[in-house]
From TrEMBL:
<dbReference type="InterPro" id="IPR050765">
    <property type="entry name" value="Riboflavin_Biosynth_HTPR"/>
</dbReference>
<dbReference type="InterPro" id="IPR002734">
    <property type="entry name" value="RibDG_C"/>
</dbReference>
<keyword id="KW-0560">Oxidoreductase</keyword>
<feature type="domain" description="Bacterial bifunctional deaminase-reductase C-terminal">
    <location>
        <begin position="40"/>
        <end position="243"/>
    </location>
</feature>
<dbReference type="GO" id="GO:0009231">
    <property type="term" value="P:riboflavin biosynthetic process"/>
</dbReference>
<keyword id="KW-0521">NADP</keyword>
<dbReference type="GO" id="GO:0008703">
    <property type="term" value="F:5-amino-6-(5-phosphoribosylamino)uracil reductase activity"/>
</dbReference>
<dbReference type="Pfam" id="PF01872">
    <property type="entry name" value="RibD_C"/>
</dbReference>
<dbReference type="InterPro" id="IPR024072">
    <property type="entry name" value="DHFR-like_dom_sf"/>
</dbReference>
<comment type="pathway">
    <text>Cofactor biosynthesis; riboflavin biosynthesis.</text>
</comment>
<protein>
    <submittedName>
        <fullName>Pyrimidine reductase family protein</fullName>
    </submittedName>
</protein>
């Protein structure tokens, strides 16, 4: 795996901390993807095929790789909470985040729990509360919803052990209010894994601080969604390239809002 900063990619400077002939350690990945001091900080992590698909047959795994999953796991291990849309929970069969021994000391030193909480964004609360995500998480699952959510669904979620957090008026969730609510619970290192509709809402609300994007050397065709969906923004948002990793044709980019 190679590592280049924007300046190095253009020919200046030395190669980064790891050479091309060995795999980066988890500690090196954690250092490369460390959260900045600014709080709260919302990071997105998505994978895309060369022709822009975020999934194939409804799942991201076919366009992913072993290294992509190592980075996926590292980003989770650095986060306080993982924010995900209800449709992604249903399609991907989301499970609770697990504790990882490799990151236990670092999480304890940072004042974090053993694993990040999962926060599900949903207006309808149309979820299967018997799933492990709700029935047996290491850290109680959060549900971000609107003030007008059906009381019987809220009661069912709470009975299953989830914590319901109101983050919007009516049925919807306001992204800015959701970030504030999570920060109010002590979750400052925020990570979203989509899906595309949720990521599009976060972009439109201008609350996304960073995007970690894996470009997969695959072509899928079809009508799969892009990494971000929903209505377009009035003016394209310009992000800065922070770092770029490469392995086996996969590019792992990290972009920040200026």
């Amino acid at each position: 795996m190679t590592y280049e900063t924007p300046a190095q990619a253009s020919g200046g400077g030395e190669r980064g901390a790891a050479g091309a002939d060995r795999e980066w350690s988890l500690a090196e990945l954690a250092a490369a993807y460390a959260y900045p001091a600014k709080r709260p900080w919302l990071r997105g992590n998505m994978v895309s095929s060369l022709d822009g698909a975020a999934q194939h047959d409804g799942h991201s795994q076919p366009i992913s790789s072993a290294t992509d999953m190592r980075i996926f796991g590292t980003l989770r291990a650095l986060a306080d909470v993982v924010v995900v849309g209800a449709e992604t929970v249903r399609q991907e069969g989301y499970r609770p985040a697990r504790a990882r021994a490799d990151f236990a000391a670092a999480r304890e030193a940072a004042g974090q729990g053993p694993a990040p909480a999962i926060a599900v964004v949903t207006a309808s609360l149309d979820l299967d509360f018997s799933l492990p995500l709700f029935a047996s998480p290491l850290v109680p699952t959060l549900i971000l919803t609107g003030a007008a959510a059906a009381p019987e669904k809220v009661a069912a979620a709470e009975k299953a052990g989830a914590r319901v957090v109101v983050a919007g008026e009516g049925m919807g969730v306001d992204p800015e209010r959701a970030v504030r609510a999570l920060a109010g619970l002590g979750h400052h290192r925020l990570l979203t894994e989509g899906g595309p509709r949720l990521l599009g809402q976060l972009i439109a609300a201008e609350v996304l601080d960073e995007l970690c994007l894996t470009l997969s050397p695959t072509l899928t065709a079809g009508d799969a969604q892009r990494v971000a969906g929903g209505p377009s923004v009035a003016v394209p948002r310009r992000f800065e390239l922070v770092s770029l990793l490469e392995e086996d044709g996969f590019l792992f980019g990290r972009y920040r809002r200026p």
